[in-house]
Amino acid sequence: MTVIGTGYLGATHAICMAALGYEVMGVDTDSDKIVKLAGGEVPFFEPGLPELLAKALDSGRLRFSTSFEEAAAFGDVHFVCVGTPQLEGSHAADMQYVDAAFEELALHIDRRALLVGKSTVPVGTASRLAGRVRSIAPAGPLAEVAWCPEFLREGFAVEDTMRPERLVFGVESAWAEDMLRRSFDPVITPDMPVVVTDMATAELVKVAANSFLATKISYINAMAQVCEAAGADVQDLATAVGLDSRIGKRFLRPGLGFGGGCLPKDIRAFTHRAEELGVGHAVAFLREVDAINMSLRHRTVDLVQEIAGGSVAGLKIAALGIAFKPDSDDIRDAPALEVIDQLRQLGADVRVYDPVAMDNARAVRPELTYCDSALGAARDADVVILLTEWAAFREIEPAMMGRVVRQRRIIDGRHALDSARWRAADWRYKALGRPA
Ligand code: UGA
Hints:
Elements: E1 2-4, H1 8-19, E2 24-27, H2 31-38, H3 49-59, E3 62-65, H4 68-74, E4 77-80, H5 96-106, E5 113-117, H6 125-136, E6 143-147, H7 157-162, E7 167-170, H8 174-183, E8 194-197, H9 199-230, H10 234-242, H11 263-276, H12 285-307, E9 316-320, H13 335-345, E10 349-353, H14 358-364, E11 369-370, H15 374-378, E12 383-386, H16 391-394, H17 398-404, E13 409-412, H18 419-424, E14 428-430
Parallel strand pairs: 1-2, 1-4, 2-3, 4-5, 5-6, 7-8, 9-10, 9-12, 10-11, 12-13, 13-14
Helix pairs in contact: 1-3, 5-6, 9-10, 9-11, 9-12, 12-13
Residues 120, 150-154, 210, 213, 217, 251-253, 255, 257-260, 262-263, 266, 324-325 line the site of uridine-5'-diphosphate-glucuronic acid.
């Protein structure tokens, strides 16, 4: 098999498939990425992946290339894993990378092969590409398209690829289904559901799932704002509501909201596509989900100002965390960066620290003051603010940090800290929707 696109999704898929015993070729137009991967270096942070890459390379089953011609000659099944970022100036998805990957590959497909899309795309894309591939591939109708959405989470990418909760196959023929079953044979266990459906449904499953997750997060964050106004405690509320097994406690953690390369752009692209299909009204609530999520960034800045006594101008603020979530170096649409930007605009002197995302952050925000530890960032701080819930931040000893700051004031932007421990060490602790 081949894997086209070696970003967070594709590199993980290629490495895991080789580790599972398949002959795999990873393909990318970015030769730097290919050189790194071929040399045993994963170009991003993902726990467990570097070790697995080393094993896969040692096995001789994993190779890399920048050539679509080589890929077409090599593979019977081709997984397309390139990105669909938000189009500039629009809510739509930018389809240029997916379209180019299918086109360039199809031009070289001269025997029976399956081209499988894994990228998150607007519904209707798979069917459009299937027609295009048939018409330009030398193999004609023997070049088939299928859709197999990916549900992996950054930080748990290896686990989610090796032991997914389900697989979804969007297919147009029994042959395509058979090829997909054979491509995931070691992953498919008797108790792991495989949903076989048409391509449009498979495309929609992905955006519907991400929209639901985003809605759940914005729901609890809306409750946090009500709790804040009513003097109630959103953490107890989330615990009690989540104990209803119909609701469930996961994705009910309040805080700064969702970011990253998936949830924000996926709900926007979904809304855009639904409008094109004439059913924009059916998912109009996703605009509210997005608006609630974005408002949390301003609300968190407000909390910093409130705890600082009104203004942050001239104050030193320690920002702990930049990545959009822990166990990732991904800073795409990271809520932390926006909070940091706003605090700086208000005149604060912000010192930042993140265990792995600082190199990525430096590339887009060279002007920030980066520190080499959480304690370093907190030195002489007037307010400490937790922006990404890294496990290491949870373990910070409040008394020890209390000795280096100027003022013991902390905003827990991720509802991740034990408020009682911090208060016991004489800190003023505040999180949105929790009593002061
Ligand atoms: C998300 C989905 O969870 C994956 O299933 C999907 O495959 C992926 O997008 C994708 O489309 O590729 P990911 O972006 O890695 O995965 O991150 P999540 O774990 O979903 O977290 C998203 C954001 O929500 C983070 O910023 C996180 O901090 C935030 N979050 C999550 C909350 O604010 N509260 C919660 O309770 C949970």
